Amino acid sequence: MVLRALVGSLSAAVVMFAWGFIFWAALPSTQAMLRPIPNEEAVVSVLEENLKESGSGTYRFPLPSEEDQRRAPVRAMENAMRRYRIGPVGMLSYRAEGLDPMSPMVFATGFLHYFVSAVLAALLLAAAAPALRSYAARAGFVFLAGVFAAVALEGADPIWFFKPWDYSLYVAVYDMVCWLLAGLVLGIFVKKRPANAL
């Protein structure tokens, strides 16, 4: 059972990896969703200059500065709330040091992420397998777990971190299809163990 689950997880990771390439690199809708920044060089130059000391990290705006919070915390928060209502509002993931997005290490880490995720899904499926009598039920179970994760995680970002709904919904669709494909694979490998099996 363990060997079958590992082989199934590896197979599911291959399928998810292929789907990730198709979705993120080949679909024109993804290119339309991830828009380039107009006047990118000027914007990046301002970021480099202003984030030189604080470096890589996740930044949210508007937020009161630490100095304003120390001097007049209530007033600083009121000012931030006013700026929230006026806009713009955003969150920035910033990496000061460069990287090679086509590095084998990037792809290896991505594949490892799919594999570990598939192993966790296989463990859930193995726990539920006695109640799942058919291939469709097993595949559906993994798919439903993926839908749960997509809704719970991607649905939170537009609400609490003000990301655009269209992007979060787009990523949620990717996740759901990813776990549908994983379910179709894992449903073949992870089954209820026969009563006479050791």
Mean pLDDT: 92
Helix and strand content put the structural class at mainly alpha
In the predicted model, the low-confidence regions spanning at least 5 consecutive residues are: none
Whole-number tally of structural domains: 2
Q: What Rg do the Cα atoms give? A: 22 Å
Looking at the structure, what is the overall shape?
elongated
- For the largest beta sheet, what order do the strands appear in spatially? 1-2
Can you write the helix and strand succession as a string? HHHEHHEHHHH
Count the beta strands. 2
Alpha carbon gap, first and last residue: 10 Å
SS summary, helix count: 9
Short description, anyone?
The protein has 198 residues and is mainly alpha-helical.
Structure description:
The chain is mainly alpha-helical and 198 residues long. The protein has two domains: 126 residues, no CATH class; 55 residues, no CATH class. Helices cover 69% and strands 5% of the residues. The chain is built from nine helices and two strands, in the order αααβααβαααα. The protein has a two-stranded antiparallel sheet with strand order 1-2. Helix 1 packs across helix 6 and helix 1 runs antiparallel to helix 9.
